[in-house]
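User: Second chain of the day. Same drill as before.
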Amino acid sequence: MLRLEPSTVSLTVGETALVEVWLDNAEQLDSIELHIGFEPGYVQIEDADPDAEGVQISAGVMPVPAQVLQNEVNNDAGLIVYHVTKAPESLGSRSGTVASFTVRALADGGSPLRFNVVNLLDAEGQPLSVPAQIDGLVIISAGNGTPEPAGGATPTPVPPAAATPAADTPVPVTPSTATGIYYTVQRGENLYRIALRYGTTVDAIVAANDLPDRSAVQAGQTLLIPVSPSTGSVTYVVQPGDTVYSIARRFSTTVETLAALNGIDSSYAIKVGQTLIIVP
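Assistant: Same format as last time:
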């Protein structure tokens, strides 16, 4: 198994934490290549070797590296690339740390730490079975501290603002032809948390809704989440206080149409959390 330890890190803006990459129960490992992705607007990776060119992470013991083929961090693209081969004289340990790195929190929200590429080879250059992988997550809360990244540069990400109450009267929404789920922003939410909930990205939500920036979200606002719904091309998740009438008005449709699409009887009863088809 390939995992990040700890798998979940909670930080305040400006704080740092050490994350280790662990590989368990590996046999005949001679070479390993990892690509780990992260959200550059929310975290950055600190340089483990300031004397070397570029940003690097720390080597581990699984395997003990004889040759570092690639050790690079691109904080602009949100990518770690680590590729090493085993020292010939090193013992063939089955478990241990592959590498470690320090994450710094930049903005309120968070970032997944995802294994995008995993390649393991034996001494003959033959691929080994790719182990199960457990990705990581960095959860960030707002703080009074100002990030101080290595090298003296001060990042300027736009933090996703916590949702603030909107007017009681919802703004009518014209259903898009795009596939997705309509979701009403709740108090205290931001785009990162919504994207994480639905398994998409902040940038995808921004693009789907033509938002001016990542902070343009407020409680009561309806967003199109660009994910494939289980049924229908456009759906909506019922929120507290919703009625069939208010949803029909919000999406510029009729009560009769919603009832027919979703098998709602004449009582027009719906439940919070229920998914309704808006456009079939």
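The first helix runs from residue 191 to 198.

User: Great, on to the next one.
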